[in-house]
Structures are given as structure tokens and as C-alpha cells.
TrEMBL record:
Binds 1 Mg(2+) ion per subunit. Its cofactor is Mg(2+). Mg(2+) binds at residues 60, 371. It holds the Pfam family 5_nucleotid. The lineage of its organism: Eukaryota, Viridiplantae, Streptophyta, Embryophyta, Tracheophyta. InterPro entries: HAD-like_sf, HAD-SF_hydro_IG_5-nucl, HAD_sf, Pur_nucleotidase. It comes from Solanum stoloniferum. It comes from the Eukaryota. This is Cytosolic purine 5-nucleotidase. The keyword Protein transport does not apply. The keyword RNA-binding does not apply.
């Protein structure tokens, strides 16, 4: 939105009652000829993208097509991790009595493993909010720890952990609990582990849950309990395919779990006595399971590509996707003929295999939709040059709140202007007093005025801080606005801006727009640029 002033942006936004530039953003597929797309469902653009140039659209599954319910799935992940800590890693049984607040942590936070701190930073990596466990650090403590260094900390691995996926929220919450537990009960932590070691144990426990299938077995038994139903997924996939695009799925989940989840998402139920259905495959050209992203995006990484026989889950050797005869046999073992004529299912491989299977001539012809800044978006864009769309479920509520709080933001802006004006007057008076060019009577008057201004300035400062804190807590009681940290874009917003061509709250928002739409950033309302004080 470079070149457009804050007042102009606000006027355009208000004129359109949530639309862009006073024009209606219409639902492309609406039978009534289009109606306004509510702002929480809109697709926001960082870099121009002409969908006419896209020949293939790909999707991640977990947290992209499949949106998990935090109150059930994250709680399941938390409980499984706690049990592994107790029964496999020697932590005290009292951890089993702990409870999980799934709404406490947010994406974009950084864990300081060595110090046991949880941080929220702005785009310049300045720490603006910090907690030690669940205890907020004072401004002085923050500056002493993170602000008084000659060299700026990168805040990256191995000393820090980035909370950049929704699945990471449970482990971040558990880490904070363990920090508090260690501080109060130092002798109860196994081998007197330090904060960094405790984080390592949490990660190990999470990995154990994945390896033994604890989480996915529970989800497979009752998908409806853990995954949000979305009836727009099938219409979206149909729209893309009918527009002439190839569609593909690349997921780290293996075939058995992928099939269960996709059947649920597509509203399909097993029939004719079969334990599973494969009808959902009609909406894809290629499905790659067990992809081991982000390594999958590196063409130079040699990874065997196996074709999956859907009925049995058996893996068939391939030569870059072409089936190979088994040793001692002259015939090829092929998956079901009906499936081979449509979607093909694989495990492993790398992006080079995918490009060959889809006959992709240029990586810029691919749009990939995912939820993971590093695992999906950064690697696919930076390494390959794919066009990218990031799914940010939290965005829907955030932009709706921005609109609802427009009057509060106006008041905050007025208080900010008032503070700046008083500070300017104070600096002017102090400079005049230092100059020594005034008589005693004038000096006495100026000192009196200075005292009055300083008192007034302190009063306005406190009012502004209180109003700002109250507004901050409307978004999240602890961490505030997802896309902002104070007046600056948050680190998360900065990453979205750098690596995502498009971003939106739900993958199915794609179905609200023409499949040939030309997305342009110049006039669009961008949540991360819409400063909380800019109206």
C-alpha cells in the first residue's frame, strides 16, 4: 500500500463497508451473481499473481485442507506429550494432573530455550513482550537480557525455537509450565535438567507421540471430533479442475491416515462393505504422501519415489514415477487400473519427481497452499520459485476486530498525537532554557510552563498506555494482535509479507474468487499494514 496515506486507506475501507476501494468484493461462484465477501474471508496479496499463468495448484493437508479443532486436537497432543514425559522420560507423575489452555499461546512467538522465556518480537527482532514461564518480564529485565548487547541476536536455532505452526502451541504451553515447575520445584526435574534440556525432552515426547501413532489413531477413530467439516472443499477443487488446472496434494502424513482424513473432508463414506473409499482421488492428479517436507522441496536431495497401491497400502518401486518390474518377474505390478487412469498416489520422492509427473515447465506456474511458514511457504518459494498462499486461520477474527475497533483506534491516534505535541513543546522549552538568552522573569514563567507540560504529558502518557493495553487485550489477553507488536509489524507479519504471495484465513476462500483472477497488492487492504493507530 505504498503511496496511499492512512486517511485515504481508512476512507476507502469505510466507504466500501469492508470492501476494497469502495468496490464490492464479490463471491465469484455465487448463483445470485455475487455478494460481498466479508473481510475475514478475503484473500490478501503481497505480490501480484495472475492466476491465468498458474497451471497447477497444490495443497498441504494438515492444518491447510484439514483444519484441526484446537480444543480437542491440541488437547489430545498435549495430553499425549505429558504422558510420554512421565512414562518414558522420567518426569514426576504430578504432571498428569496439569491442564491445557489451548487459547494461551499464539503463532509467531519465540522460545528462549536457555533462559526459559517466551518472546514476541517486532519485524526488527526487538523483544516487545516477554514472559519467563507465565511471569511477565519487566521492561528493565527485557532490556537487560535482550537489549544491552553489542551484536544483535539472530533469535534462531539452536538456542531459540520458533512457534510458527498451530501444532507447536501445545508444546510451547507445556514448556512454560515446566519452566514454572522447575523454578518452584528444582529437585523434581529429572537429572536437574536445565530449561534447554527440558525443551529437548518436550520435543522428544512430541516425536514419540508421532512415531507410535498415538495422535493419528485417535483422529482416525473419530475425525469429526478433531477436524472441522468444510463443505466448500469439494466445490473449490472442482472449480480449479474445471478451469483447466492440475491439482496435487503433498503431505508428510502417510497414505492410510491421508485417505481417512480426505474421505472425511470430502464428505465420503465407505460403501459396499469396503473399509475405505477412494472417490476423493477424482479431485487430484497426483497425491504424494510421506513427503518429508521441507526436504522434499530440494531437487538435489535423492529420495526414492514409491507408487502406493491404495487398497493394500503396498509400495511399488518406480523409476522416477514409472513402475518397475520386481526382480525375478517380467510383469509389472500396477495399482488399480481405474485409479491409474486418473490420480496417481506416491510416497517420498522430491519436487523434481512432482514436476515431471505434472509436466511442469516452469516453477512459477505452480501455486502451493500451506500453513507452515518454513515447512511449506519459505522453502517452496525461496528454493523453487513457486507462487505461494499461506493459510492463517487466526486472520479471520483479527481483521474483523480491526474493523470493530475503528473508533478505539481513532482515539488512540488522537492520544498519540497529543503526546507527541506535548513532548515537542517540552523539548522546545528545555532548549530555550539552555540557550541562556532569556531574563529571570521569563525563565521563571518557562519553568512553570515546563512543570505544567510535564505533568500533563505524564497524564496523557498513562491514559494512552492504558487505552493501548485494553485494545491490545481485545485481540489476545497476553500477546495482543497477531500482525502487530506495538507500532511495528510483528515478526510473524514480516515473514508473511516476505514469503507469501497471497494469504487468507481458509484455503476454501479460493472458491470465492474467479479461478482466473489477477491478484494485485497496490490498492488492497492489507491487515499487517493497517496500523492499529492509522485511522
Amino acid at each position: 500500500m505504498d503511496g496511499i496515506g492512512a486517511d485515504t486507506r481508512a476512507a476507502l475501507f469505510e466507504k466500501g463497508n469492508g470492501a476494497i476501494g469502495g468496490q464490492r468484493s464479490c463471491i465469484w461462484s455465487s448463483p445470485e451473481g455475487g455478494c460481498d465477501i466479508v473481510i475475514g474471508k478475503q484473500i490478501f496479496c503481497n505480490r501480484s499473481l495472475n492466476m491465468k499463468s498458474i497451471v497447477a495448484v497444490g495443497f498441504d493437508m494438515d492444518y491447510t485442507l484439514a483444519q484441526y479443532k484446537p480444543e480437542t486436537f491440541e488437547s489430545l497432543a498435549y495430553e499425549g506429550t505429558v504422558r510420554k514425559l512421565v512414562y518414558d522420560l522420567g518426569y514426576p507423575a504430578e504432571l498428569l494432573e496439569w491442564s491445557f489452555d489451548w487459547s494461551y499461546m499464539v503463532r509467531g512467538l519465540v522460545l528462549d530455550k536457555k533462559r526459559g522465556n517466551i518472546l514476541k518480537m517486532d519485524r526488527h527482532k526487538y523483544v516487545k513482550v516477554a514472559y519467563h514461564g507465565f511471569r511477565e518480564l519487566s521492561k528493565e529485565d527485557k532490556v537487560a537480557t535482550y537489549g544491552n548487547t553489542l551484536l544483535r541476536d539472530s533469535f534462531d536455532e539452536p538456542d531459540y525455537a520458533l512457534i510458527d505452526t498451530l501444532f507447536s502451541l501445545a508444546e510451547a504451553y507445556l514448556f512454560a509450565q515446566l519452566v514454572d515447575f522447575k523454578d518452584k520445584n528444582p529437585g523434581k526435574v529429572p537429572k536437574d535438567a536445565d530449561y534447554s534440556h527440558m525443551y529437548k525432552d518436550v520435543r522428544a515426547a512430541v516425536d514419540l507421540c508421532h512415531r507410535d501413532g498415538t495422535l493419528k489413531q485417535m483422529v482416525a477413530k473419530d475425525p469429526k471430533r478433531y477436524i472441522n467439516e468444510d463443505t466448500s472443499i469439494v466445490p473449490m477443487l472442482k472449480m480449479l479442475r474445471e478451469s483447466g488446472r492440475a491439482t496435487f496434494l503433498v503431505t508428510n502424513s502417510l497414505w492410510d491416515y491421508t485417505n481417512i482424513v480426505m474421505n472425511f473432508l470430502c464428505g465420503l463414506k465407505p460403501s459396499d462393505g469396503c473399509s475405505s473409499s477412494f472417490d476423493w482421488l477424482q479431485y487430484f492428479d497426483v497425491v504424494i504422501t510421506g513427503s518429508a517436507k521441507p526436504g522434499f522441496f530440494h531437487d538435489e536431495i535423492r529420495a526414492n519415489l514409491f507408487e502406493v497401491e491404495p487398497e493394500s497400502g503396498m509400495l511399488i518401486n518406480t523409476d522416477n514415477g514409472t513402475p518397475m518390474a520386481q526382480v525375478g518377474s517380467t510383469s509389472l505390478r500396477l495399482p488399480l487400473k481405474s485409479l491409474r487412469e486418473g490420480c496417481r498416489i506416491f510416497q517420498g520422492g522430491n519436487v523434481g519427481h512432482l514436476h515431471k509427473l505434472l509436466s511442469i515447465e516452469s516453477s512459477s506456474q505452480v501455486l502451493y497452499v500451506g500453513d507452515h511458514i518454513y515447512g511449506d511457504i519459505l522453502r517452496s518459494k525461496k528454493v523453487l520459485g513457486w507462487r505461494t498462499m499461506l493459510v492463517v486461520p487466526e486472520l479471520e477474527r483479527e481483521v474483523e476486530l480491526l474493523w470493530q475497533l475503528k473508533d478505539t483506534r481513532k482515539q488512540l491516534q488522537l492520544l498519540r498525537i497529543q503526546r507527541d505535541h506535548i513532548e515537542d513543546e517540552i523539548h522546545h522549552l528545555k532548549w530555550s532554557l539552555k540557550s541562556g538568552e532569556t531574563d529571570d522573569a521569563s525563565k521563571e514563567k518557562m519553568f512553570s510552563e515546563l512543570d505544567k507540560l510535564q505533568s500533563q504529558g505524564e497524564e496523557v502518557r498513562l491514559s494512552h498506555q492504558q487505552a493501548q493495553r485494553e485494545c491490545h487485550q481485545k485481540f489476545h489477553k497476553v500477546w495482543g494482535q497477531l500482525m502487530k507488536t506495538g507500532y511495528q509489524n510483528s515478526r510473524f507479519a514480516h515473514q508473511v509479507e516476505r514469503f507469501a504471495c497471497l494469504y487468507t484465513s481458509q484455503v476454501t476462500n479460493l472458491s470465492l474468487y474467479s479461478p482466473d483472477k489477477y491478484y494485485r497488492p497496490s490498492e488492497d487492504f492489507m491487515p499487517h499494514e493497517f496500523d492499529i493507530l492509522s485511522i
